Amino acid sequence: MLVLAIDTATAQVGVAIGEAGEVRGEVRLVGGRRHAEQLAPAIRELGEWTGVRLESLAAIAVGIGPGLFTGLRVGVTTAKVMAQALRIPVVPVPSLDLVAYPVRHSNRLVVAVLDARRREVFHAAYRPVPGGVQRITEYAVASPADLVAQIEAGGAEVLLVGDGVAAHADAFAGLDRVELAGPEFAHPSVAALVGLATARVEREEFDTPWDVRPLYLRETDAELNWSTAGRPG
């Protein structure tokens, strides 16, 4: 079973093609907010490199965020349009899960943190369990200081992972009982997306393309500006 995996929730555009849960080829590009320019060529080149034709795909997996608004729209829309054209299902997976999953062998509480801009971070906490991780908090957005306060109040030994850690390094620097994952774990893993999505397709846990929605957690800049402009002076 062949699966195309896409994640554009962060500054990285990640694309992978997997078979039976194993990655056959992967492309990762970091180019700021150029998701719309990079994604389609990355998919095309990956198909040529792996020799996989789009008509051979059984499903498309996509990271649905939370993350950067423009990137999420590009990735989710691309996955939906392709799936509709190919008449195959979509497997949506939250991008914070794709940050936490690669460090599932840690014996610490895993806190996945993605930069949300506006001096905020998206975050969720996970407990490593046999074969993966189990999310134990809601997906949330907060200031780095508020997240630090939550971690300190919890008192657990924590592994921090995700690009939000480096983006707000000063805020997290003084934490005790905390380790930082390396920069190779900064972005959502499309290899993890291949593995998780393949298992879900096998269990028939997938969505029709028109049911897939990004996980935003807050208003877009345009919505925020409109709301602010509409308030009485």
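the 2nd protein, sequnce then structure:
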Amino acid sequence: MNIILFGPPGAGKGTQADNIVKSFNLHKVSTGDLLRDETSRKTKLGSKIKSIIDKGSFVSDEIINDLIEKILSDKKYYNRLVFDGYPRNLDQAKNLDLLLKKYNQKISCVICLNVDKKIVIKRILGRQTCTKCGRIFNEYFNSPNSANHSCDKKFLIKRSDDNEETIIKRYGTYLDKTLPILEHYKRLNLLHEIEGKTEIDDIFVKISHIIASLEA
């Protein structure tokens, strides 16, 4: 199955995507990860991406779509994907429809985590990522400690764009760009909306029930 996971910045998409991957043996597709991977490998495309990002510009849909097609064309990921925060606009959604058809795949469900702006701000301002193991913590809701994190504290970082002004702007962009996509998937009868301000484990139970119902 292929699943799309939506939610505003700080909704917990990454955490829930990781939970889905582990529980259902799927592969996470995050455009941020794809862009970082391409730049780290120092390919011609990676250099182009780095130049765009360094200038503070957005990477074009064309580049993003090419990276997504690389994943969809890889047989080891066939119908085993969790899209984390992609597509980001209606054009990307329509392009994904075409790519899925091209590679004889489909979206099984679209899950949207609904979280209000106040909670989003607190979640993002407190977010910490371990550069060694990749785990994500939050100093307000899920702080790293000796029981849940074995890496040294020096590996914990905050993203440079995790500030209130940027968060509010990204939240507004999400509402503006993503709501039309949700309507698109609602019309296709694929959309499931979940209250995203409850506990991580409770949210995942709801997500698991949705996925299990698809497998039944």
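The beta strands are 2-6, 27-30, 81-84, 109-114, 127-130, 136-138, 156-157, 191-195. The CA atoms of residues 114 and 196 lie 5 Å apart.
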